[in-house]
Amino acid sequence: MDSLAIVILNYNGHSFLADFLPTVLANADGHPVYVADSASTDGSVAFVRATCPTVRIIELSRNEGYAGGYNLALTHLRQQYGGARYYVLLNSDIDVTPGWLSPMLTLLDANPAIAACQPKIRSYAQRDLFEHAGAAGGFVDWLGYVFCRGRVFATFEQDKGQYDDDRRVFWATGACLVVRADVFHQTGGFDSAFFAHMEEIDWCWRVQRLGYEVWACGGSTVYHVGGGTLHKSNPHKTFLNYRNSLFMLYKNWPADGWLWGKIGMRLVLDGLSSLLFLKVGQWRDVWAIIRAHGAFYAHLPQLNRQRSLLKKQQTKEVDLYPHSIVWQYFGKGKKRYKEMPDL
User: Looking at the whole model, is its pTM more than 0.85?
Assistant: First the structure.
């Protein structure tokens, strides 16, 4: 068994592999690198075989998204290659830096309770700014809305060392996620119904309910292009984000008496947010939000079963951020993480 395996899930990411895979190999510190390909049609597999012969290739028969793709890839890795103690789940559009792995491994080795951690995620295009997907570690407010140290909604902070500490967070980003392999397999991995987006936040919530912790490692930095597989302007991304946020909240919210009141408030706020799309003529995004709500209702039987099972397995209550990040940001004008109360 390897101590660590770097696994890049790829779907038609030939250009990103050409740009960033050599840097990953150069900074892998001797650990094996895998490319798990989700039935790409752009010649990705042939390119990797021809140019990076030391990379181990896992060929998946179809595109199952981030959630299902990594579930399949890591199961295959364990069965065919003996697994690893830690998995690094790395997006194909990540530019790693020298020494990026060591601080995270040190953090995980020092505390067996940590199930996952992430480095600081900075923007590849504007390298002094934090990037949307995870920034310096994320949190979830009491209505299920997510935000990060270094990024709240559309406000991106400059990295001036203010988040160079190692600290516990609520969720770590799937763009560059280091997970303890035994915990990943113990929990059944990601919820494949999510397909893509927020599945890592759901997983982080679930592992904390089992008593584990999630951390951000301030001593490690990588750069993220963002939107490599599904651009932020794509309405399908809007659909996945709104639907999966409701999935996550319904499955994991602990207080039965408040659950439907909370869901109702979320549906209203989602509806209000669609007005922002209407304002700029993005009708397809409005329709995506409507479809997301419909998909949530359609999945309720499955979500109820998952909710019941998770309640039986739970060993610890998990605290959410007790304020509305929407109100703090839009209502009170607090745009940065350190301006928020009770953090």
Answer: yes
